[in-house]
Design brief:
mainly alpha, 0% strand, 196 residues
Length: 196
């Protein structure tokens, strides 16, 4: 109960007194430090407390983005940090004794946050077809990471993002393009699907 209060009060403090661009990264750093310290000392409560701080950071990030906020580079750094933390936990299984559900939660929350960041960034830059291209690139990256690490969750997440990109191409983007660009977009989509 005390740990929940610490996370809640810390999150409120960060929300009130820190700039929006620093919030997610700050909570992710605190959570990662507690997570690593708990894993090294084999103190289960610290690992869970670190995960709670990371979850609070994700919550603030999603609230900001869903309210129409901008995509900050520090948010991307926090997402990459958390995904890197997961990779370290996978590689050092003898230090990090995490169950499969914890790994799946990290992959899904990190991948979903990465997708949201890419979406917000592409909307700010240009929107439209750039968003579809960015989603396709993200899908390809996630699938490649999944094959490289032999993690099916990354591959599934990449296939889901690719399905979103393909749905966007067929339902929205195709009607906004000229005939030549339509042909090129379908050829590019075919090449991406062939490469997978």
């Amino acid at each position: 109960a005390c740990s929940i209060g610490v996370v809640l009060l810390s999150t409120i403090y960060v929300y009130e007194y820190f700039d929006v661009s620093f919030r997610f990264l700050l909570l992710a750093l605190v959570g990662t430090a507690l997570f690593l310290r708990g894993a090294v000392d084999r103190v289960k409560g610290r690992v869970e407390l670190g995960s709670a701080f990371v979850g609070a950071g994700h919550l603030l990030f999603w609230m900001h983005c869903l309210q129409g906020g901008t995509a900050h580079g520090l948010d991307l750094l926090a997402i990459v940090l958390l995904m890197g933390r997961h990779l370290a936990a996978v590689r050092l299984k003898n230090v990090f004794h995490l169950d499969r559900r914890h790994h799946t939660a990290i992959i899904l929350s990190g991948g979903a946050s990465l997708w949201l960041w890419v979406t917000r960034w592409s909307m700010e830059v240009q929107g439209g077809f750039l968003m579809t291209v960015a989603w396709g690139g993200l899908a390809f990256l996630l699938i490649a990471i999944g094959f490289g690490l032999r993690e099916s969750e990354y591959r599934r997440l990449g296939i889901f993002v690719l399905a979103l990109a393909m749905g966007r191409v067929f339902m929205i983007d195709i009607w906004e393009l000229t005939l030549g660009l339509r042909v090129l977009s379908f050829m590019g989509l075919g090449l991406v699907l062939f490469a997978l």
